[in-house]
Automatic annotation (TrEMBL):
Residues 71-223, 402-519 form the Amidohydrolase domain. Keywords: Hydrolase, Signal. InterPro entries: Amidohydro_3, D-aminoacylase_insert_dom_sf, Metal-dep_hydrolase_composite, Metal_Hydrolase, Metallo-dep_Hydrolases_sf. This is Amidohydrolase family protein. It comes from Sandaracinobacter neustonicus. One of its GO terms (molecular function) is hydrolase activity, acting on carbon-nitrogen (but not peptide) bonds, in linear amides. It comes from the Bacteria. Pfam families: Amidohydro_3.
Amino acid sequence: MRTSYFFRTCALPLLAGLLAACTTGQTHDLLIVGGQIVDGTGAPPKPAAIAIDGDRITAVAPSARGLKAKRIIDATGYAVAPGFIDPHSHVPESIGNMAGAFLDEQDLTQGVTTIVAGPDGAGSPASIRAFHAEAARRGSAVNHACYIGHNGIREQVMPGQRRAATDNEVARMAALVREGMQMGCVGLSTGLMYDPGMFASEAEVQDLARAVKPFGGSYDTHTRDPGFKMLESETEAVRLGEATGVPVKLAHLKAVGLLNKGRIGEVIAMVEAAQARGVAVVADQYPFDGATVRYIRELFLLPSGKAPDQAALKAALADPKARAAMQTATEQGVNGGFSWVKAVGYGSMRIVDAPDAPELVDRNIELLAKEWGLSPFDTFARLATEHQDLRLTLGSVDEADIQTLMRRPWVMIASDGFYADQKVLAAGKAHPRSWGSFTRVLGHYSRDVGLFPLQEAVRRMTSLPADHLGLVDRGRIAPGKAADIVIFDPATVNARSTYLQPSAPSAGIRTVLVNGREVLRDGKVTGDTPGIFLKRQAAPK
């Protein structure tokens, strides 16, 4: 079984590539010439020519001498890398809001060719099938893989239940996990900070993770309480990996808020101690100093569990009894459920946009409350009343902590991005990470700050996630690999998205190929849709 698997997925494609390179007179479908190849392994850039036939790389040669093709892309002056893999994307969740083909411009203009859907526990087998069918019907410019989501299956088995699962319910959920893995999902994801995952016991999650092990799957987690119990929450995930033998990825790892500022080193030390014991654990990170963005008025909760509109908010704040009830719901959740203030705390909230009061930008809510001599809730209420369009990030992160974590070689790059259409932009929820995570690392953190060389930045976006996710034919430029390729200018590549302009396209990405076809040419989406559903390909263990 293992020999057959290796021969089919590795040896045969490599042999085919070597034969293609040696065959005289062959005319390839496409040649990429003149560029500096950054092959995804972490090796330094080198000049090379790439031959592509159909959806595969068939030869990589030191030069184009003796090679012929129907089409040639001259990449002189550019870097040529494997297409980037976003291991944590919420973009597919919004496909229902899109019209026409799934072109995903925000990812293509960053060089992303594969997105992994279903993080944070989202996605049941039924919703995954629905997305696959819709993407196939419309056509997709990017490849997509999927997690099977704990919250999705828990809601299916235990609709509306906020309690621990019974043994029978865990068994039914495990069957759905296996169903997802049989569909080709890359692993199990959890969102333990959110309803209903927050009511799951550690034993429940471990039992479900064991269901992915026979398929060679992995475990990806939005941990239980990263705001108030950061180290304990990340340790719970590592404990799962140690108990089950399933590889673990800590999703969008960061040290959030005033409480955790300067403490990311504690998590790094815990992870690396576990790695030294043989636990397979990695993380992903987006390169911005704040988590999700919301208008301040959306963060209040009524006792009904709903967020008030502006009129209802003002009315509740003006009535002492209604104000007290709203404060309880906002700060404690309704019936023990989720609320943003409960989850992250006022000390994790920083103002990122205040159109009528720019002097408030970058102010932390907890520190502002101390300055004003008010409680954090009363500060919240004053801000929401006086500045309707004020927006906050709900997970402020210190820049020094961002860089400390990003230096670790086991940290891959992800966007945690949502589809930022006009509706999302108008709602104030768009985040610059959706349009600029990968290019910000290439330009700002690699080139300008100098955290690591270009080839290491590319490795974090290609072979590292490909290997972890079991996407064995992606993530490297080599004969037999899929022809997912990005051509970019290393001197100018960078993000242009900001909290004020979250949908500004990146600079420096010239051409993107997905499965051998151009989906971005001269920085513009072509409209081609060669993207496919990628199944986990790692051999079962």
